[in-house]
Every structure is written in structure tokens, then in C-alpha cells.
Amino acid sequence: MRFLESPRRRRRLTLATIAVAIAAPLIYLGVHYSTPGSPENATGPAIRDDSLYREPKHVPFTADKRRAIRKVLARFISTAVARRHVADSWELAGPGLRQDVSYKEWSRGEIPVVPYPAAKHGQGAWDLVNYSYRNKVGLEVLLFPKPGSGYSLATVDTDLVRGRDGRWRVDYWMITKFHGPGETAPADSASAFGEGAPNVHKLPGKANARSEQQAAEADASAPDVSSTRLDKKWVVVPLALLSLVIVLPLGIGIAVWVRNRRAAAAYQRSR
Length: 271
Hints:
Elements: H1 7-33, H2 63-81, H3 95-98, H4 103-107, E1 126-132, E2 136-143, E3 153-162, E4 168-179, H5 205-221, H6 236-270
Antiparallel strand pairs: 1-2, 2-3, 3-4
Helix pairs in contact: 1-6
């Protein structure tokens, strides 16, 4: 035990023991109460999963397809959109618009299509082709208002699908933008601002999915109140660090006091 006979070595051993005694609980607390994070937020290399979604193959927007779609759009606008003989537009609507809507409701005008006083001019015309698949086409359609209706030119986002019978149908319809001020309406006529909210029954299919996505994005942007609450377990770590500031000088002081006492006792024995 000659190693412990040296006062310097005993002092160093005492300090090392105190440091280990303090650091060990801190390391244990840090490892025990730390969280690895949520697996849902884990990041990593992008992995392609073809089982989830496969984009259809793009095909040319041929002249025959354009003529067929233009006729369907013109009839749909003159009936469902303009609210004239709405029942005739039942056969022009795809499964996305028909979802959860009965024929009687459709005939009464309770349809997921915003009414618009469309003029005959330009019915079925579009200004942009978003995509063209074999059995589905996405377009931006232009709506021209009747003179004096109070409405302005509008852009509509629409999708058309082709059924097994080979007929094209409007599967999605949503006004996305009005261009410029509306035309002046006569005092005794109903305008866009005097009719009130349109009689929209439901917004199924793609329209409903988009509204749910917007609501999810709004909820995601809101502050998470629950995440601001401090976990009680993390209070232990600051307290442990604070105790380190107190315990370490105290331990050094005790070690120096013990050393001085031993030196004084050794001096008394040597006299």
C-alpha cells in the first residue's frame, strides 16, 4: 500500500472518487430520461414504394378526345352549373361528384357544384391542360358570365373520367379564381353578391380530400400547447448540475481539511 502513503496521491484519489461519484448519477439520469424521438418523425433515405401509388401513363390529348370532352363540359355547364334542368346533368357526373348524393337530391339542385350564371359563349372551352391520362383528364376551364349578371370571368379546376362504357363524365368541379370586377347588374336582378351562399349539398371525392388537407395544414401550423409543457423528469437534470456546483467545492474543502488534520497529527507524533 505504498501508493496511499503519499499525501499527493491520496489527495488525487479523493478528488477522482468525488468526481466519479457526482458524474455517475448525472450520466445515469441523462441516459434514463432522454427520449430517442418519435419514430413518425424519423428521417432517412427516400424509399420508393410502388405498392402505394403508381402514376398513370401520360397520353396525347387527341382531337377526338378534345371534341368528346368539350361536348360533355358544355352540357354540364348549361345544366348543373347554370342550374337549368339540373336532373339532365346526372348522367354527366362522375363517381366523385355523385358520392353520397341521391338522384332526388341531385334533381333538387342539392349538388356539390357552385352555381354560376354561365353564358353560352365559350362553354366547354379551357385554357390549360393539367394532365392527360388514358381514362382521366385534368383541365382549367373558363366560365363566361351572362351580361349584367354581376359575375366576372371565372377559372374552374375540373377532372373528367372515362367510364367502362367509353363515356366521359365530370368527376370534380371547383371554381378557383374570379378575374376582375363583375359586370354591373340591373337593380332588379339577382347578382353574385345578392344570392347569398350557394346551395351546395356536399363536397365528396377529391374536393372533400382537398378541404381536409387544407384543414390538416391549418392544424399543423397552429402552436402545439401540449409540447410546451415541461416534463417533470427534466427538472432532475438542472438540480443535479446545481448540486454539482455545491458538492464539488465542498468535497475539495473536506479533502483539504482531512489532509491538514493528518499533517498536524503527524507533526504532534514526531515531537
